[in-house]
């Protein structure tokens, strides 16, 4: 890796592990995740509910609640800055400034007793040391940027619709122009027409501010819309990662195939859906072998013995699947 | 908003009329005939009838009630049977003492309860939480008069820092305020804790942290403001209670407040004083309730929106 390339890397995570130590047992939410994100790129983090996507994002923000959460990591750097060793008061400078997060549910993500203007202005006051008046002015600009008239800055969250609230949440996250934006299912709580608007807005803003982004979602359509790269997560591990083309058009992992098969096909309305059978394994009691093996149509005895490691298929494309030890193996899904 | 306040103030009228009638009826049933106790044992029936008229005790309950309300509207609460003093004057003499004690009591209660409750909630299930809750339990179970006596023993008799009783200056109010405040703080602490626990789980605190807000501000600014409504509710109830007088503490510390006035008057079957003081207290309590509702609107914009609708 040349120096210039290294400079471009915004996020570098090595071997991230997060577990929640509860009274009912240890929940292994994230089990050794490596992620690298370069400047201006958008990574889609895809997987079912409970795959550890949100926990990964919270760990990047160092916001995993402790107790019960315990984070272990070999390396966690944002824009070259080591986040792991930072004390709490320094982390406060990073959060909202270098990296910020858009939360899943706009209905609950805003504080009901403060005006939306104040909530946007707050991070500007903290990070850019603006006066209350200047911060309010900038908050008005931010509102306009996300398509809300600035006069509404003095209104409270309950006076906004769901889609508008999500725009406010986006405005809060972008207020200090962060290098890295973590968007945790930003459209899940919205209806489809608003989803499209919000995605378009995020794409525009990303272009405008050169922000790198991790888009957490289980909506593959949303990934296709905004992402350059995709990482598919299952039971706290990345099972397939690569460019959008790699994962969508040259799908190799059986789980990724399962995700695509679960999508309804609008061209063939009579076709039956092929959902992935079974459920995600209990994170307090993960199997020794491949976590997906119990649900996998291609699983062999070899899959149950050891956890498959990520291997490179091409320069950009990596998968973790034991079945490919057999050079003849391929999944059913073919390039569309 | 102003319409709401006006509406609430107008609602004061039927409430006061109702309460006055209730007090009137209860005293009529309970007190026996006060004319006899005033006239003495050897009064003739004629003297008693004259006295009854003079004391305004002639006529049916309804007649007397209407007469009383008429006087009340002119600010006349009648004359005490015992001291022959104007009840309104006596009440207004005692009221500043009660207001002073009530205010300081609530300051003591809030000053103890909010920090303890927040600490307990933020460090849930830790040693700090347990300590706070045990303190609250002790405060709740300890009888007022007993705590009052303990404080007198230690701070007045042994250390000599505060007077044992009376109402001379600020120093004499400290011990009664601590006595009553401690027992009120107990409930207020528990309310603060449970309300904060509820709020601490909310997503918007994570949003605040993700913005880079310091943990201290997350708790004191973002969380506390949202946790305030139940705390204000309990505060309002307790403040109303102490406005009616804290009889036990007033007795222990010989504090000349409204509570003792009423209790002494009941003992002496001094009906005008009892009725007058209770009607005035009702008015104060209703006003406090209105203020509490207005504070709700100030704290939570969603409630304000309901008022203006």
Describe this structure in words.
The complex is a heterodimer of chains A (336) and B (309). Chain A is of the alpha/beta class and 336 residues long. Chain A has a domain at 252-330. Chain A has helices at residues 3-8, 53-60, 88-94, 106-109, 116-127, 132-145, 162-174, 192-209, 220-226, 244-249, 254-261; strands at 9-22, 25-38, 42-46, 69-72, 75-78, 81-82, 99-102, 180-184, 212-217, 229-234, 237-243, 311-312, 318-319. The model of chain A has no long low-confidence stretch (mean pLDDT 87). Chain B has two domains: 2-73, no CATH class; 95-307, MetI-like (MetI-like fold, Orthogonal Bundle), CATH 1.10.3720.10. Helices cover 79% and strands 0% of the residues of chain B. Chain B contains 14 helices and no strands. Chain B has helices spanning 2-30, 34-39, 45-54, 61-73, 87-122, 127-141, 144-158, 171-200, 203-211, 215-243, 247-252, 258-267, 271-299, 301-308. In chain B, α5 (87-122) runs antiparallel to α6 (127-141), α7 packs across α8 and α8 crosses α10. Chain A binds chain B through residues 61, 63, 88-89, 92-97, 100-101, 103, 105, 108-115, 119, 122-123, 126-127, 156, 158-159, 169, 172-173, and chain B through 202-204, 206-215, 222, 225-226, 299-302, 305.
